[in-house]
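User: Can you recover a sequence for this backbone? Please restate the input before giving your answer.

Assistant: Of course. Working from this structure:
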C-alpha cells in the first residue's frame, strides 16, 4: 500500500471543488479513460482577471483526486500568469508529498491547468500527436522531455512514475533512454559553458544570475524529490545565504546537504571560492 500524507487522505476523502464551472472561461481535458486516468479542469475569472472559481472532474486513483482537489485550491485568487507558474512539484508539495510512483497524478494536474489556460487564450491544441513515444499511454517525446527536465529525472523508471510512459509493454524504453541521454548531454554542454563563464571575472549581478540558474538546474530538482526545497536569500561577495524549505528545513542531515551538496555544486558551476551559509527564520 502507498504511504500517503494526512493531507492527501483529506483531499481524497473530502475533495474540494468537485464538478464543472458553469459557463467556464477555461477548460482543460487531459488523459483518457483507456489509459486509466482522465481529468477535466474548468475555471472562471473575475473582473480583475483572477481565478474566482475552479472545479474538477476526474477518473483516477486517490492521488489523482487529491492532486486535482489541491490544484483547484491553489489556483483560486491567482492571475493566469501566476497560476501557470505552478509546477507539478508544487502540487505534490502542497499535499505534503506524493509517492514517486504516483507523481504522474500531479503532472496530469499541471497539464490540465496548462490546457485550460491555453483554451482561454484561444491557443490551438495540438491534435496530431506525431511525436508519440509511448503508444500504450499516448505520451509524446516532448512531454517526456519537459517533465524530465523540470523534475531532474535520470532513469526510465522515474519517467514511468511521472508520466506513465514505459509502464505498459516496455517497447518504448530504448527511446525513453535515448531522450534521457540527449537531456544529459545538453546539461553537460550547459555545465561546460557555465564553467567557462565562471572562470571570468563576474559582476555581482552576473554572479547572482549564475547562482540562481545553478540552483534551478542542479540543486532544486534533487531536493524536491525528497520533499524539500531551497531559496536564495542574499549574496555578499563569495558568501551565499540560503534558506531550506519543506523536509530540508527539519532534516538532521541539513548541514551535510548545505556543505556537501549545495556548496559543492555552486563551487563547481559558479566559483571555487563560494561559501554557503544557512539563514534560519
Amino acid at each position: 500500500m502507498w504511504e500517503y500524507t494526512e493531507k492527501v487522505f483529506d483531499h481524497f476523502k473530502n475533495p474540494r471543488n468537485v464538478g464543472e464551472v458553469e459557463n467556464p472561461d477555461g477548460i482543460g481535458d487531459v488523459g483518457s479513460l483507456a489509459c486509466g486516468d482522465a481529468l477535466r479542469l474548468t475555471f472562471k475569472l473575475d473582473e480583475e482577471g483572477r481565478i474566482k472559481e475552479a472545479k474538477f472532474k476526474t477518473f483516477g486513483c486517490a492521488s489523482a483526486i487529491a492532486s486535482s482537489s489541491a490544484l483547484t485550491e491553489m489556483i483560486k485568487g491567482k492571475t493566469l500568469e501566476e497560476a501557470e507558474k505552478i509546477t507539478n512539484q508544487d502540487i505534490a508539495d502542497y499535499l505534503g508529498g506524493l509517492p514517486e510512483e504516483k507523481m504522474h497524478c500531479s503532472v496530469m494536474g499541471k497539464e490540465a491547468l496548462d490546457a485550460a489556460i491555453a483554451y482561454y487564450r484561444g491557443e490551438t491544441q495540438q491534435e496530431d500527436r506525431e511525436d508519440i513515444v509511448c503508444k500504450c499511454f499516448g505520451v509524446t517525446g516532448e512531454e517526456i522531455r519537459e517533465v524530465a527536465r523540470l523534475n531532474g529525472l535520470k532513469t526510465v523508471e522515474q519517467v514511468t512514475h511521472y508520466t506513465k510512459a514505459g509502464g505498459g509493454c516496455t517497447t518504448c524504453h530504448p527511446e525513453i533512454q535515448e531522450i534521457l541521454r540527449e537531456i544529459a548531454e545538453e546539461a553537460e554542454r550547459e555545465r561546460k559553458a557555465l564553467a567557462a563563464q565562471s572562470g571570468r571575472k563576474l559582476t555581482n549581478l552576473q554572479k547572482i544570475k549564475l547562482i540562481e540558474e545553478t540552483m534551478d538546474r542542479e540543486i532544486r530538482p534533487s531536493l524536491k524529490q525528497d520533499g524539500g526545497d531551497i531559496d536564495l536569500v542574499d549574496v555578499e561577495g563569495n558568501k551565499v545565504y540560503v534558506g531550506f524549505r519543506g523536509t530540508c528545513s527539519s532534516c538532521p542531515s541539513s548541514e551535510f546537504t548545505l556543505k556537501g551538496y549545495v556548496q559543492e555544486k555552486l563551487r563547481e558551476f559558479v566559483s571555487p571560492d563560494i561559501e554557503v551559509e544557512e539563514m534560519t527564520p
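That completes the design. Residues 116 and 148 are 22 Å apart (CA to CA).
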